[in-house]
Amino acid sequence: MNYERQNPAxxxxxxxxxxMAVGPIxxxxxxxxxxxxxxxxxxxxxxxxxxxQNYETALCDxxxxxxxxxxxxxxxxxGAFINSxxxxxxxxxxxxxIGCMAAYALVRFKFMGRDTASLTTLMVRMVPPAVLxxxxxxxxxxxxxxxxxxxxxxxxxxxxxxxxxxxxxxTHSGIILIYVAMNLPFVIWILQSFIIQVPRSLEEAAxxxxxxxxxxxxxxxxxxxxxxxxxxxxxxxxxxxxxYLLASALSDxxxxxxxxLIVNNMSEFNIExxxxxxxxxxxxxxxxxxxxFASRQIISGMTAGAxxx
Amino acid sequence: xxxxxxxxxxxxxxxxxxxxxxxIALLYPLGYMVYGSFRAWDPSQNISESEFIGLxxxxxxxxxxxxxxxxxxxxxxxxxxxxxxLVIGVGLALMLDRNIRGMSVLRTLFxxxxxxxxxxxxxxxxxxxxxxxxxxxxxxxSLGLDGIDWLGxxxxxxxxxxxxxxxxxxxFILSLAxxxxxxxSALEAAKIDGATSWQQIIHIKLPLMMxxxxxxxxxxxxxxxxxxxxxLVMTEGGPGLSxxxxxxxxxxxxxxxxxxxxxxxxxxxLLILLLILTVSMYAITRIQENRAARLARQIQEEY
Lengths: 309, 303
Prior knowledge:
The complex is a heterodimer.
Chain A lengths: L7 H25 L3 H6 L11 H6 L18 H32 L5 H11 L4 H15 L1 E2 L4 H10 L5 E2 L4 H24 L4 H9 L4 H12 L1 H17 L2 H6 L7 H9 L6 H35 L2
Antiparallel strand pairs in A: 1-2
Helix pairs in contact in A: 1-14, 4-8, 4-11, 5-8, 8-11, 8-14, 9-10, 11-14, 13-14
Chain B lengths: L1 H35 L2 E2 L10 E2 L3 H7 L2 H32 L6 H13 L2 H11 L6 H8 L12 H26 L3 H9 L4 H28 L4 H6 L11 H10 L4 H43 L1
Antiparallel strand pairs in B: 1-2
Helix pairs in contact in B: 2-12, 3-7, 3-9, 4-7, 7-9, 8-9, 9-12, 11-12
């Protein structure tokens, strides 16, 4: 492939664009290694003595050594980080498995209610988290509960302690359930466009050789749509990892995720910029890594999701 | 026999988990919300204990100046954001649609902003907009200019700029993909006929990209109504109500004012708005598909 030569102004434009796109992220990365004195003090350049003190403050509850600059560990960021990982990973996995089974059925089988199902997935895609906030808050706290006097309720109360009925609110599974539900329509939509491209003859050949529908699905179709699965996984992970509103309504002290802690610390009067940027960077790193390694899949997923309306 | 019966049920087995989860955690809550919006409902009571008040929540909201302002802010925000992103994104795609080295690296860097958590984006921009330590005002001062009161007097504009930064790449990437899949023959024919690059853009590229652009714009419009975290972190809706978009107002009505019924009615207004947008998107794609099919048939008949 030979490349056209462009004039210098074009390259100047490119460099400006890259600077504008990545600049704020680099700025935050640089600031997360500065002490607050340096951030406020004015030396805005990249010349400073880097320190990991901000990261130590942020992660103080999971570090194995004592910190000299800190008497009391107020930011429980490490625990929140673990909560975020658990919630994001499990909900991504569940969404993918359930979503690709549904997408396969919608593409390959003709059955009663298929059109209704596919229209419903299309419609619920637009529901914003803010709209779900009120009903989910009410349901998860009051309706989706097991009475503490019932058999399972007693067992759970004996094992985990606590008072009152056993409800979904405040547990990891409560947050995971709403994330899976929120992401399913999108994942089904994206995967449909990948499954359509799998040649039918392959599946029929497998069926002639005596494979059942489940074997065809898991052994023939799934390996062929790996790029689509990767794209869908990244999009789901991104939403589950980044979401704030519903998590903040559904979590209690033990199940707070990272975005909640960041927002809580931002609303304080005196912001410690260095520490908050370090926490922000920790939250941003996993999606950045995915982007750098799988940008091709992300882009193909994005175009598939939008173009195949 | 058994095997055939099993085969008939296969699609339902495949669909069952998704249907169960969507029904329990999406459709049932939505119904619950519609039900709750007709009641005087606050978080301390169970919904069945609350009083039925008919359409009162909807009517109160309709005459509530704060709600109207919030609706106005939401619409201004959504329209400004989508318009500027479309202009910048499509413009950049037209300019960068060339055969250059490192295009994939460029695209990777461009999608970084939209993969990052909205909370973090808000955090970054709040720092950059800071009146004294922020990057923008520092730069302005070092140039000898006065600082701008970004998140004070120009809060809505500042919020719009942050969103444009995050989401222009989305439109850029989609329109670049659309541009590169255009039929080369039409463009070459135009080149041979001596069309200038402006004429090529206006008469060939833009019309051919239009289907993708409309869907992309509607997708962005729907997403623009969902924005919440960026604004929450940057301004918390203030100063006054100047950046309080509907999503933020819903969450504040529910958690601070503790009026779940009113918040549910507000959510319903927002949902109806989005429903109209989604239905129009669906209708547009259907019309386009039909037109494309008809064109294809005509071409086949001619040959």
